[in-house]
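Q: My labmate handed me this sequence with no annotations at all. I'd like to see what the chain might look like in three dimensions before we decide whether it's worth expressing. Could you predict it?
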Amino acid sequence: MKVLISILVVGIIVVAILLVKATSHHRSNPRHAGDPQTTLEQKLEVLSGCGLRLAEPFTCDDLLESWSRADYEKAGHDLVLVGLGMTEEQEPFRPHCVNLWHFDAECIEDHGDYKRIAERMAEMAGSSLPIENIQDYVDVENKEAWLSFAFRGDHVKIQCEVQDDWVDPGVLSRFVELLAQADSSKVFVCYDLGGQDCLIGCVTKEQLKRLNTKGIRFAPLT
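A: Here is what I predict for the chain of 222 residues:
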């Protein structure tokens, strides 16, 4: 009987040790969906430290109108970045983050579409990309499109390649070139979401380094 009791006691101790180790591993994993180290607020704090922050008057509550807290707090930053890059879901459709844009490449259908892209790129770069008098023309059926604007007093006109409703990536590349001329401390960046959409942002080169150090895979837009 004493031997049986001793065996049971040892078994209970072993089970308790295993449970403690399992719990400890769960708490030490910073990428676990329910880990307090990866709350929505803390992810936003990390991104804010890298130059991507909620614009006033938005708060976490505004992001939670689109997805649940549990979704945002899953491993990684993708969904939080998408939430930041979106606009509010009602008029006047202000961006949640001034210098981050959740961009759908299949967005060219009519007049004004390239103008909106130019306006948003300029908005993200702030005073570093001074463009004015933005105009465009889009005729998908006849495969004709162009974008024009004034940059530092010069007239710029870009002939856009028409491929159904897909954006011409050369237009984005032109803004990369112009920003490099106007303010070499800043760069347009891209975050690949694995589909036809991506995230486009504008940060300083130092902020891009910080993002990469945090494992957030932004790359310079080209």
